[in-house]
Design brief:
- The longest helix is centred in the middle third of the chain and has 32 residues, at 144-175.
- This protein is mainly alpha-helical.
- Helices cover 77% and strands 0% of the residues.
- Helix 3 (65-88) packs antiparallel against helix 10 and helix 16 (380-394) crosses helix 18 (442-456).
- It is globular, with a radius of gyration of 21 Å.
- The chain has one domain (2-470).
- It contains 19 helices and no strands.
Length: 473
């Protein structure tokens, strides 16, 4: 099963390269999305038809990465459905669309490998692979701003990957004579590691992979890249790539927990988490580009994940719930921004007026996505943020709790001001409505429905998966 979702995109790229038929672009993406979704369900929920050879030494599912895999799979399926309408309305050259498909397949392949890897070194390789694949996707429109965003992305993330590599070397020094980077071996022998080198290793890995996760102060590539990438790619970047990087940080953090020196790591995660919220609160109020606005919202939510991880216990539980909710809602937000861009031909907030009158379905999706990401009940993010506040109270972090609430309030105000202006204002230009078709509305509707229904009722299987994922933190 795991071999199937890792090998199929490579085979699909080969088929596209040989036959070069236009219809194959969407076919291969849709087929891979369906296979990825079915296999992920089988792996995560232990379905009866799952073969015995589903895992191997280098790639396997465990209690932690299941939640990341299923979130990626659901978002990728939604993006694939949306992508059918997006490419239909896109007048780019056939060859350019084929390259776009190559890179999307390779991008998802790299993220899947990073999530399923059982070895820290292999995870590092796949994280680097995501950079190579997504750089072209960011540059896809080949404008001045897109090439600048792509170069900034490659430059900053390459430095981050290099720092993470140094961190891995330092980790091998901490392990002494243990010549392995397999996670289970590192967990089982963590108490024998040298605390000094382990702490230093975590610093390098956190800052290095933190660039990919979008944590401040190493987040600078993210607003430009998300703003310039095609909307389906922006959804993948925010809802799946950042999660993949977070999982690598989480696995290394677990080593420090088993080694008994996690206090230092928790402080660093708290600092970077609150700094991410602060950066978003400062910039979101003055942003005039709605895709950049969503990018800063992603930085905020990655900060919330870091804070939850640092708190541990209920905070860690909240972080896992938040990860799923953010993936669904932010993907919906970015896909809906693609509809707005198609309608108005601009990313400027001040140029988008009367959205509800121009396209009622897109307008309501934009509003509901805002309510969901702002944690308005019954959004599942309300539960995660409520649990995080509860965790702070239980640990007597009253000042941090107050700061957390203040920053979230400022961010919600900044987002809400832009969303309300775009949707409820009077139309200043005569924008003709477009018939996007069901595939540019349905993915957002389903993801938002899942995020809001889960906020009311969490299925037993999902609850068990979340509880298993946080065990040991």
């Amino acid at each position: 099963m795991i071999n199937l979702i890792l090998l199929f995109p490579l085979l699909a790229c080969l088929i596209l390269f040989i036959f070069k038929k236009k219809f194959l672009n969407n076919l291969m993406v849709n087929l891979y999305a369906i296979i990825h979704f079915v296999v992920s369900l089988a792996l995560c929920f232990n379905m009866d038809f799952l073969p015995a050879w589903s895992g191997n030494k280098f790639f396997a599912v465990d209690d932690t990465n299941k939640i990341f895999l299923i979130a990626m799979s659901v978002v990728f399926l939604a993006v694939a459905i949306y992508n059918n309408g997006y490419l239909k309305n896109n007048e780019e050259l056939t060859r350019k669309i084929r390259h776009y498909t190559y890179m999307m397949l390779f991008f998802v392949f790299s993220m899947t490998g990073a999530v399923l890897s059982t070895n820290l070194g292999i995870t590092w390789v796949f994280i680097e692979g995501t950079t190579l694949a997504s750089a072209y996707l960011i540059y896809f429109h080949k404008t001045k701003h897109s090439i600048e965003a792509a170069w900034k992305y490659v430059f900053i993330c390459s430095i981050g990957i290099a720092l993470a590599f140094v961190g891995i070397i330092l980790l091998t020094i901490a392990t002494g004579n243990l010549n392995t980077l397999f996670y289970n071996d590192l967990y089982n022998n963590a108490q024998l590691f040298n605390p000094f080198w382990l702490k230093l290793s975590f610093v390098f890995i956190l800052f290095g992979i933190g660039t990919k996760m979008g944590l401040a102060p190493v987040h600078f590539w993210l607003p430009d890249a998300h703003a310039e990438a095609p909307s389906p790619i922006s959804a993948l970047l925010s809802a799946t790539l950042l999660n993949s990087a977070f999982l690598m940080i989480l696995n290394v953090f677990r080593i420090t927990v088993f080694a008994g020196c996690d206090g230092y790591a928790r402080i660093m995660l708290l600092v970077m988490g609150f700094l991410s919220l602060f950066i978003t609160a400062v910039f979101v109020y003055h942003i005039n580009n709605y895709k950049r606005m969503l990018a800063y919202s992603s930085i905020e939510n990655m900060g919330i994940l870091a804070i939850g991880t640092a708190l541990g216990g209920i905070g860690m539980l909240a972080a896992m719930i938040h990860l799923v909710g953010h993936s669904l809602i932010k993907a919906s937000f970015f896909l809906t921004s693609g509809n707005i861009l198609e309608l108005y031909g601009t990313k400027k907030i001040k140029s988008v007026t009367g959205l509800l009158k121009t396209d009622r379905k897109t307008g309501w999706l934009w509003i509901i996505s805002f309510l969901g990401i702002s944690a308005f009940p019954p959004s599942v993010l309300f539960i995660s943020e409520f649990l995080m506040i509860k965790s702070m109270f239980m640990k007597n972090h009253f000042i941090l709790c107050g700061l957390f609430l203040l920053l979230l309030t400022i961010i919600i105000y900044g987002l809400g001001k832009a969303v309300i202006k775009m949707t409820f204002s009077e139309k200043t230009e005569d924008i003709s409505p477009k018939d996007f078709g069901w595939n540019m509305y349905l993915p957002q509707i389903l993801m938002l429905a899942a995020a809001f229904i889960t906020g009311i009722y969490m299925p037993q299987g999902f609850t068990k998966m979340i509880l298993a994922a946080v065990a040991g933190f």
